[in-house]
Design goal:
about 240 residues, alpha/beta, Rossmann fold, 7 strands
Length: about 240
């Protein structure tokens, strides 16, 4: 038996209904003259504006995305997760730029890393034009250490913590790094940079810090991380 063609073709006119094998015999009864409006398209709740779902720019997970603050000449690539993680810090940097002159970044690190990975990150950031508060450069011999750290924290727009095995040990033993971390966490301005360890190890020592998303030298080189921080703090 033939079926009604309205759901597929739509009866836009009376003649269209008349040509339908079902509706041409039902004129004057039931649905009136057998006229049906054309079917309506309802977009799926899962459709994506500007492209299909799945991987690629703007997708969830580890797809690639371009943050609003990234210059067109930039050579580094961000994951969607990185853009999502860095956006709150970017907003804080922009707000702080309206205030008094501040350093771009406070670099929190373990004492054992001061002449190794912390120095490397500091040098790379400085080469990118980022102003960095770094204890090795900013605390003069004889100055009260904790007081200078407090001043450095107060005079910085945002903070980086270089998460290494040495720092995890310091935090677990409640060393000076723990005080810096507590202050930066309270201000919601702390970006973790994980190096030669994992977020799983960090969460075992500091669940609060481990819940923050940041950057990882397992995904990017230290030089690319410095570029990303430089782009984020540029105002």
């Amino acid at each position: 038996m033939s079926g009604c063609t309205a759901p597929r073709e739509g009866h836009r006119t009376a003649s269209g209904a008349a040509n339908c094998p079902v509706c041409r015999g039902s004129r004057g009864r039931g649905r009136g003259n057998g006229y049906y409006p054309p079917p309506t398209y309802v977009p799926s709740a899962y459709s994506r504006v500007g492209g299909s779902s799945g991987s690629g720019s703007g997708s969830h997970g580890s797809g690639r995305s371009r943050p609003s603050w990234q210059p067109n000449t930039s050579s580094v690539s961000y994951t969607t997760d990185q853009v999502r993680a860095l956006t709150p810090y970017r907003n804080a940097v922009v707000r702080a730029a309206r205030g008094p002159e501040l350093r771009d970044v406070f670099l929190c690190h373990a004492w054992d890393d001061r002449r190794g990975s912390a120095q490397e990150l500091y040098d790379l950031l400085e080469a990118e034009g980022v102003t960095v508060w770094f204890s090795e450069k900013d605390i003069v011999l004889g100055q009260p250490f904790l007081r200078e750290i407090d001043r450095g924290l107060a005079r910085s727009r945002t903070g980086l913590v270089l998460v290494t095995p040495a720092l995890l040990k310091r935090v677990d033993n409640r060393g000076v790094s723990d005080k810096e971390l507590s202050e930066l966490l309270a201000r919601d301005l702390l970006i973790p940079v994980v190096h030669e360890t994992t977020y799983e190890d960090l969460r075992r020592v500091s669940p609060l810090l481990g819940s923050r998303h940041g950057l990882d030298t397992g995904d990017d080189s230290m030089a690319d991380i410095a570029k990303k921080i430089a782009e984020m703090v540029a105002v």
